[in-house]
Design goal:
Largest sheet: 7 strands, mixed
Order of helices and strands: HEHHHEHEHEEHEHEEHHHEHEEH
Oligomer: single chain
Helix content: 25-40%
Bound molecules: 4'-deoxy-4'-aminopyridoxal-5'-phosphate
Distance between the termini: 53 Å
Shape: globular
Radius of gyration: 20 Å
Structural class: alpha/beta
Number of helices: 13
Length: 348
């Protein structure tokens, strides 16, 4: 006998990328962590944590972060909601807008957490396949959907849907569209200006990748104040802790460090993409901090396993109907050199 709800018993649950413990020398290129450290100001902010700050509950609205993020984005602060990682905001969105049996849509291949969140809510989940060139058909904008997710840039492809196309899809939908911009800081364009235009667009962002802060869990959403007000009712009261609020605020306050970090990652991304193409893989142009390589000179599952034996972790993914491939995070130049030299050996 199970005590679990029927839908929970029936679901597989989201599978996060491997996080090996205590292993030294393992090159992690599997979960899109940033190879460079966060701004020194972040560590200073963490060091300055006082006993009082930990004794008391944190600010439920992370006001200091909210105000700085609002200034950066050029919106009033009541357009921002902080979250315990952007995954928290995706969860809040599902709990805010989706009842059991309602329809949630998302493209495929994309972030598989959307499916798990829909299953937990006992909702229906429909995946709309990307076209061969990673475009989205009009069928994505299903008028019967109660919530739509669009990762932009997408994972695992790293490709983007142009804001003008996102606008057209958002206009066709009769429900909120969450534009998941976890990787947008590595891209040329974003959809924040669409939020101002369209009340059904919610943008979510992450500090995990572009601010090198996956370990503290911080993200934020941008939406109309009435949308944010509704989501506040659904979130945990203290969804961000005092240390992470201070660290995240210090991180976005150091835009010089941030821009230099992005510049380095994007330069290595270009080199990695070219090298993989040179080895015979198909690699779509990535605007994220990883690349997707498929249709290469050796089976991706085998390469994944052989790389793992050599202490290099990449993400093997297999999407039924869309094929399989490797998603490789952009590491430092030295790390990418190590990966490429192993790959060259393996496919010789
Ligand atoms: N969206 C996408 C598309 C992702 O790949 C990830 C990382 N797994 C997230 C959101 C969540 O990021 P975080 O919770 O670390 O902000």
């Amino acid at each position: 006998m199970s005590f679990f709800r029927f839908n929970v018993d029936g679901m597989a649950g989201y599978q996060p990328g491997e996080q090996p413990r205590g292993l030294t020398g393992v090159l992690k290129l599997n979960t899109n962590e940033n190879p460079y450290p966060a701004s020194p100001r972040v560590f200073e902010a963490v060091r300055q944590t006082t006993p009082d700050a930990l004794r008391k509950y944190p600010d439920p609205m992370a006001t200091v972060f909210r105000e700085r993020a609002a200034t950066l984005l050029g919106v009033p602060s009541d357009w921002i909601l902080a979250g315990n990682g952007s995954d928290d905001l995706l969860t809040i969105a599902v709990r805010s807008f989706v009842s059991p049996d309602d329809l949630v849509v998302a493209p495929t291949p994309s972030y598989t957490l959307y499916r798990s969140l829909a299953q937990i809510q006992d909702a229906q989940y429909r995946e709309i396949p990307f076209t061969a060139e990673w475009g989205l058909p009009d069928a994505f904008a299903d008028p019967s959907a109660r919530l739509a997710f669009l990762p932009n840039p997408n994972s695992p492809s790293g490709t983007v849907i142009e804001p003008s196309r996102v606008r057209a899809l958002a206009r066709r939908l009769r429900c909120p569209l969450v534009v998941d911009e976890a990787y947008v800081d590595f891209a040329a364009q974003d959809c924040v200006s669409l939020v101002r235009e369209l009340k059904n667009v919610i943008v979510t962002r992450s500090l995990s990748k572009s601010y090198s802060l996956a370990g503290i869990r911080f993200g934020y959403a941008v939406a109309w104040p009435e949308v944010i007000r509704g989501m506040i009712k659904v979130k945990d009261s203290y969804n961000c802790d005092a240390v992470s609020i201070a660290a995240a605020t210090a991180a976005i306050d150091d835009q010089t460090h941030f821009r230099e970090n992005i510049r380095r990652v994007c330069a290595t991304r270009a080199r990695l993409g070219e090298a993989l193409r040179g080895l015979g893989f198909h690699v779509p142009d990535s605007q994220a901090n990883f690349v997707w390589c498929s249709d290469g000179p050796a089976p991706p599952r085998r390469l994944y396993e052989q790389l793992k034996e050599r202490d290099i972790l990449v993400r093997y993914m297999n999407y039924p109907g869309h094929g399989e491939g490797l998603r490789i995070s952009v590491g430092s130049d030295a790390e990418i050199d190590r990966l490429l030299s192993e790959l060259r050996e393996l496919i010789r």
